[in-house]
Amino acid sequence: MTDTPTQLFIGGAWVDAADGATMPVDDPATGEVLCHVADAGPKDAKLAEDAAVQAQEEWARTAPRVRSEILRRAYEIIIERTDELAHLMTAEMGKPLAEARGEVAYAAEFFRWFSEEAVRIDGGLATLPDGRNRMLLSRRPVGPCLLITPWNFPLAMGTRKIGPAVAAGCTMVLKPAPQTPLSSLALAAILKEAGLPDGVLNVVTTSRAGEVCEPLLRGGRIRKLSFTGSTAVGQLLLAQSAEAVVRTSMELGGNAPFIVFEDADLDKAVDGAMVAKMRNMGEACTAANRFFVHRSVAQEFGRRLAERMGALVVGPGTRDGVDVGPLIDRAGRAKVEELVADAVERGARVLVGGRTPEGPGCFYPPTVLTDVSAESRLMDTEIFGPVAAILTFDDEDEVVRRANDTPWGLVGYVFTEGLDRALRVSERLEVGMVGLNTGLVSNPAAPFGGVKQSGLGREGGRVGIDEFLEYQYLAVPVR
């Protein structure tokens, strides 16, 4: 921890908050304070914005190959420091070291992917239908960006936004979640080491998000907002962005259905459920929230899932053999406790888990509920914890209707051995992504995002850089 930056990163320099404020970073496994980091206020945010605005013109003119090579160097540094970054992430967020190492690799890949996309930004030339003008299309960076990242994937959500912004030629102000600022500060140090010019990336850690972000969005100099977080906060940020017509991309909440048909391979389905539910202790917007299992296989599926969930080892992420770390904080755990209690009061049976352990830290056991009422609160709430709630269904039309009966539409999971049904149901689900006989959809080479209240735009894939580019049309007379 001693080598991890704890100051703000503005204009290429490490600085204290203007008013000297700091905030604690807690270890969710123990509740103890790891360290204190600078707690930025509006003055610091303006200085970061000034630095980004000042650097924008020159950075936009930088050769694509230069931007590409900076990202490639940053990728290589991240890979070299996998263990260091994984331990840092586990300390501030809680996930087991094996998962943290996996996130480091995932995070690094966004930099490698967008290092390759940086040199593939193209335009076009065509004669317009009336023959009088040629149409010259070019693409240019949208301008200074505000990037707001969540606590659950503190390194990967940073690289998923920074990567395309750097590749496109945009400067940035990054505001990480207050629970997990250390990964973002470490990432800023890596990018500086990789040769990113001063002012291109600025990082403001803060517990005063509203005071810091709202003036930036309303001021007119920030031209792009990329946010990952809850739908409620996303809606507020959209309203604040409207005044200056700030371009937005929003990756918001989810309420993923996990559908198991009667012809599914139950071994595959249970394996997929373990990934879709237990990745990151269930603290993921892609986490399976509602398990719809055909009545004919529901009992067997529940038995197998409970057996697998009950075998997981809960404890501090740094301890050998631990599968499930703590939840992010006591408020997060209290929410899970309340949702499970509500489901049980409405008739749900607990197959495994369901009781908060004694002792320090924010731990909650992997839990499987069956006979869950459709009226339970966890049916229309993002659980964000290691709880699998099983409901039964009888036919395809019924389960599709119930799966779509939610304001969210990020991801859905479908398990069936029938190709026709697999394609038909996937096409009918109102989601941006579908995992077909798999519990993992996230990949830097694929477009990540949802529909309805799960967000706007896509991150990753070939289209990920589009969120940071504008088209310019130049009319050239034909002579």
TrEMBL record:
Give EC number(s), comma-separated.
1.2.1.-
Q: Which Pfam families does its entry note? A: Aldedh
InterPro entries associated with the record: Ald_DH/histidinol_DH, Ald_DH_C, Ald_DH_CS_GLU, Ald_DH_N, Aldehyde_DH_dom, Aldehyde_DH_Superfamily
The positions flagged as active site in the entry are: E251
PROSITE patterns recorded: ALDEHYDE_DEHYDR_GLU (PS00687)
Question: Which one of the record's GO molecular function terms can you name?
Answer: oxidoreductase activity
List UniProt keywords, sorted A-Z: Oxidoreductase
Q: Which residues form the Aldehyde dehydrogenase domain?
A: 14-472
Q: Which CDD domains match?
A: ALDH_F5_SSADH_GabD
Look at the named UniProt entry and state the broad enzyme category this protein falls under: oxidoreductase
- Protein family: Belongs to the aldehyde dehydrogenase family.
What this protein is called in its record is NAD-dependent succinate-semialdehyde dehydrogenase
Organism annotation: Streptomyces olindensis
